[in-house]
From TrEMBL:
<protein>
    <submittedName>
        <fullName>Uncharacterized protein</fullName>
    </submittedName>
</protein>
<dbReference type="InterPro" id="IPR005485">
    <property type="entry name" value="Rbsml_uL18_euk_arch"/>
</dbReference>
<keyword id="KW-0687">Ribonucleoprotein</keyword>
<dbReference type="GO" id="GO:0006412">
    <property type="term" value="P:translation"/>
</dbReference>
<dbReference type="InterPro" id="IPR046350">
    <property type="entry name" value="Cystatin_sf"/>
</dbReference>
<keyword id="KW-0689">Ribosomal protein</keyword>
<dbReference type="GO" id="GO:0022625">
    <property type="term" value="C:cytosolic large ribosomal subunit"/>
</dbReference>
<dbReference type="Pfam" id="PF17144">
    <property type="entry name" value="Ribosomal_L5e"/>
</dbReference>
<dbReference type="GO" id="GO:0003735">
    <property type="term" value="F:structural constituent of ribosome"/>
</dbReference>
<dbReference type="GO" id="GO:0000027">
    <property type="term" value="P:ribosomal large subunit assembly"/>
</dbReference>
<comment type="similarity">
    <text>Belongs to the universal ribosomal protein uL18 family.</text>
</comment>
<dbReference type="GO" id="GO:0008097">
    <property type="term" value="F:5S rRNA binding"/>
</dbReference>
């Protein structure tokens, strides 16, 4: 019944003649009044096509519950061509804030350079090709006769390079 009330109000406001076919979905919400969200399938007799229609009907009953007032708040046709939303297109960053960054943004956008991969390669590059490495070399001053303490162990950090033969030069 409430779906027909919403459809009747829509026909009255818009001057259409939609005819009720069936209820697709109905949700109910309780507050100080009862609110019904109803999705209805209706038929448009002018072109003979089915239309999905949505309405929101309030049942504002009086305190003595003698009579009910039905208030329709939202009446609309769902999925009509009038309310189609265009897909949002993200604006393309064409200009850099500083000119020296402009090539970087263009190469990243065109997929020519993966800057995150370059950073990883640079970090790997620091660990090869005759760059000085820091290894810890532990010198033991006394034998481990007393195992309860390690104050006699000293550590020394030296700079070393790895040569092609695999020897460690200090």
């Amino acid at each position: 019944m409430l779906s027909k009330v919403g459809l009747h109000c829509y026909n009255f406001d818009k001057g259409t003649n939609l005819q009720f076919r069936s209820v697709q979905k109905a949700n109910e919400e309780f507050a100080s009044f009862t609110m019904y969200y109803i999705t209805v399938e209706a038929m448009d007799p002018s072109n003979g096509s089915p239309v999905t229609f949505q309405t929101c009907v309030w049942d504002a009953a009086t305190k003595s519950n003698e009579s009910s007032r039905f208030i329709t708040k939202v009446c609309r046709i769902k999925g009509s061509g009038a309310r189609k939303r265009k897909a949002q297109k993200k604006p393309q960053k064409k200009q850099a804030y500083f000119k020296r960054y402009q090539v970087k943004f263009r190469r990243r956008r065109e997929g020519k350079t993966d800057y995150r991969a370059r950073i990883r390669l640079i970090n790997q590059d620091k660990n090869k090709y005759n760059t000085p490495k820091y290894r810890s070399v532990v010198q033991i001053c006394k034998c481990f006769l007393l195992l309860s303490t390690n104050k006699d162990i000293t550590a020394q950090i030296l700079s070393a390079t790895i040569t092609a033969t695999g020897r460690l030069l200090c």
